[in-house]
Amino acid sequence: MLVGVVGKPSVGKSTFFKAATLADAEIANYPFTTIKSNSGVGFVKIDCADKYFNKQCHPRTGYCLDHQRFVPVQMLDVAGLVPGAHEGKGMGNQFLDDLRQADVLIHVIDVAGATNEKGEVIQPGSYDPADDIKFLEVELDLWYLGILEKGWEKFARTIVQEKQHVHIALAKQLSGLKVTEPLVEEAIDTLKLDKEKPQYWKKEELAKLATLLRQKTKPMIIAANKIDLSPGPENLLRLQQQFPDYIIVGCSADSELALREAARAGLIEYIPGENNFNLLQEKKLNPRQKQALEFIRTTMLQKFGSTGVQQVLDTAVFTLLGYLAIFPGGVSKLEDSEGHCLPDCFLLPPKSTALDFAYKLHTDLGKNFICAKDVKTKKTVGKEYLLKHRDVIEIVSGK
Q1: Is 229 helix (H, G, I), strand (E, B) or coil?
Q2: Span 101-110, pLDDT tens digits
Q3: Are 209 and 173 in contact (CB under 8 A)?
Q4: Which residue range is the domain that position 373 belongs to?
Q5: Are residues 185 and 285 in the same domain?
Q6: How far apart are CA 278 and CA 287, in angstroms?
């Protein structure tokens, strides 16, 4: 799974990425700070299964704080997007190429309206962030349409002459965008396009098909950054009403980055996504640092409940994509051969089965699958058992 972080320059996109990953992303208030995409590992947060068993887990990857498990996900911070990106303007060509393999997009906007359409810093409140949501939709849709339209007449004639299934041919053409045969077939049925005569599909119909496929393959959550600046909160409420089809979450990437770096330095105890933190080494903090941390506590954590960064990432993976966190374990023992309790946690797509999980663990476990056991209930389940979020599953296989 790949989470793409997108947005125009200077809205805090790279700050959001660095806050989520603590990777060394370049941050500055000028357009195109990000010239090449930054790749890093972020972490989604779930209630750890160890609490159910009154145990303490020992993660092999990720980490666990106070029975809150943080599971790694790959993230990509791409070059800033400007209007006309689908035509190659700005860093458009690189931006769109980087996004091909993304499963979900986090669109970071400046909800305070303190950057214009080019990403230039202006007076807060003098730009409408709704325009950023609209223009990104347009750019992505035109990108998909451009790929779809390229050589369309010849492509459509070939399908008819060779009596191919149009949804199979289209899925192959768009496979680089993670478009699948069932997705194309569903979209064609939804739009009531004539499967037998694709050569007669109108440009408007192709545009609708491109939009539908983009929405299915690149679901998007809006990270309304700079919520701590006026008129951020007022703009957030307006945007949530104006764009009811989007999940829009207020956040402050600057605040989250400051808290995570303070925690990494051992100055505070902080669990990402929580509404408070504890000072650990108050004597090592100078007055300015202490004042800054208290400012974040009162203006962000107490006022909004969190910085919003963790909520955005969790919502992208678990709500938009519907992924499931599944723990391998045993009915008789939760520890591995080295004595580590529940060391692994895997993220699987929705509607994954026990057999899918077996293959995820090891090909041989899938090939020789006998049954699975729900460790929490101790019930035996078959290969078609639909996994539930935070299940702990033991796979029983032959040799």
Answers
A1: coil
A2: 899 999 999 9
A3: no
A4: 326-397
A5: no
A6: 16
